[in-house]
Amino acid sequence: MSVPVSPCPTSVIVTRLRTAGCVFAEDEAALLVAGAAGPAELAVMVDRRVAGLPLEHVLGWAEFRGLRIAVDPGVFVPRRRTEFLVEQAVAAARPGAVVVDLCCGSGALGAALVAEVDRIDLYAADIDPAAVRCARRNIAADRVFEGDLFAPLPASLRGRIDVLVANTPYVPTEEIQLLPSEARIHEPRVALDGGSDGLDIQRRVTAAAPHWLAPGGRLLVETSERQAPHAVEVFRDAGLVPRVVESEELYATVVIGTRPTDRTPPD
Q1: Looking at residue 16, what DSSP letter applies?
Q2: How far, in Å, CA of 62 to CA of 83, rounded?
């Protein structure tokens, strides 16, 4: 239960946040005040936010699809645009489906899918140990695996995955420097850097996906509008049937590739 924290008026906190460049200073101040256990903790939290730490890292959680997702410092913060990727995965997943959240980060996508689709059999994986520790707080710990892409997943999943969600990094390497400092400094580069054209990790995921998807199973990735045509070609080259869906409201682009039911995976 929160206790009153402030000899420092909220208006002072708002002014400090606004001066530091926080666009939604009033909303952030309210969250900080509500989340602090006392004046000393509030002062530390405000100082950390003013210093540029992402709000979610200061609070220890991010809101995603109506859930409160634990997010530790140094872990990628789930973006609101990625809720569109979850929306598409929810539409693709039937009750009881085998679902994998690859490059899972905090496990936000998997947690949302568990909350929204009945009885799914969820697995998740990430290469970043900090992300894996965090994901194990948000979804079943024994279903979160640490390692490179598909490598740590149980071999028994091969050919059985109905929905494969892969929120891979897709920022081109040269554009990392253009990101807001919150992401550039405080989030792991491995969760941002997609290689020279932003599609390096997507290529690796897509090339292996037909071996892991069930017939008719789907791979869903988030990308940029600019990259989508190239991602479509990557999907086609892997033998998947691609389509692109977009949300103007969330400025989100998702490529969905279906493994044909009448085609075996390539060697």
Answers
A1: H
A2: 13
C-alpha span between 260 and 213 (Å, rounded)? 10
Cβ contacts of 247 within 8 Å, gap of 6 or more: 81, 84, 253
Residue 80, H or E segment: none
pLDDT digits (tens, 9 = 90+) for 21-32: 999 999 999 999
Residue 142: partners with Cβ closer than 8 Å, 6 or more residues away: none
pLDDT number for residue 169 = 94
- Strand, helix or coil at 81? helix
Tally Cβ neighbours within 10 Å of residue 3: 8
Query: Residue 22 CB: number of other CB atoms within 10 A?
Result: 18
pLDDT by residue (tens digit) across 30-84? 999 999 999 999 999 999 999 999 999 999 999 999 999 999 999 999 999 999 9
Contact 201, 194 (CB under 8 A): yes
Q: Tell me how far apart the alpha carbons of residues 165 and 151 are, in angstroms, rounded to a whole number.
A: 16
Average pLDDT taken over every residue of the chain: 93
CA dihedral 188, 190, 194, 199 (to 10 degrees): -130
pLDDT band at 2 (very low <50, low <70, confident <90, very high): very low
**Structure tokens given for 117:** 């689709």
Please tell me the pTM assigned to this model: 0.91
Residue 1 has pLDDT above 90, yes or no: no
What amino acid is encoded at 222 in this protein? E
CB 3 within 8 A of CB 39: no
Give the largest Cα separation in the chain, rounded. 69
The distance in angstroms from the start CA to the end CA of the chain is 57
